[in-house]
Amino acid sequence: xxxxxxxxxxxxxxxxxxxxxxxxxxxxxxxxxxxxxxxxxxxxxxxxxxxxxxxxxxxxxxxxxxxxxxxxxxxxxxxxxxxxxxxxxxxxxxxxxxxxxxxxxxxxxxxxxxxxxxxxxxxxxxxxxxxxxxxxxxxxxxxxxxxxxxxxxxxxxxxxxxxxxxxxxxxxxxxxxxxxxxxxxxxxxxxxxxxxxxxxxxxxxxxxxxxxxxxxxxxxxxxxx
Length: 225
Hints:
This protein is an alpha/beta fold. The chain has one domain (2-220): Formyl transferase, N-terminal domain (Rossmann fold, 3-Layer(aba) Sandwich). Helices cover 30% and strands 27% of the residues. It has six helices and eleven strands. Strands 3-2-1-4-5-6-7 form a seven-stranded mixed sheet, sandwiched between helices. It has a two-stranded antiparallel sheet with strand order 8-9. The protein is globular, with a radius of gyration of 17 Å.
């Protein structure tokens, strides 16, 4: 059973998709704790599902090191195997990323390496891009730069604005993040580290459980975008 920690800062829409997915008996993964860097609406979703929650309020600590020390204590207490960032709006230090190298994944609202950082939807629109999407990647010390595990693509329509594009990308996020968790839990993805270098190995096989909107695509590896 893959033991997950989910880190959030806001409403927790991706958290909700992970809660629903890992609640299935067929899925060998379990969210053991949800941690927030401030009082966040998403904590109520975890509490309603009976998942342990904790606020580690960044504003109460004098610096990032002190904040991350308490974050590490919470993660170690929960004995987590994998850390999932889901709208966690803090840049983690290089030391933290190296400590958990290969054990932190993030969902990012763009087709990386395009549009790292914030305001990805508006930037794609401003560039006149034809496609946009989302990526699940391994977190490394460089921002949004770790190995990409999977991506989903959406077409940008002529009538799109930031809100409409964001909504369509978010729908894909709610599919791809659970799919990656399922593939990790079923050992269809193996993340290997060797002297600070990361390598992904993929094995073909069915993704366990059920993901709404993915009924005909529950097979790993997923098609490239």
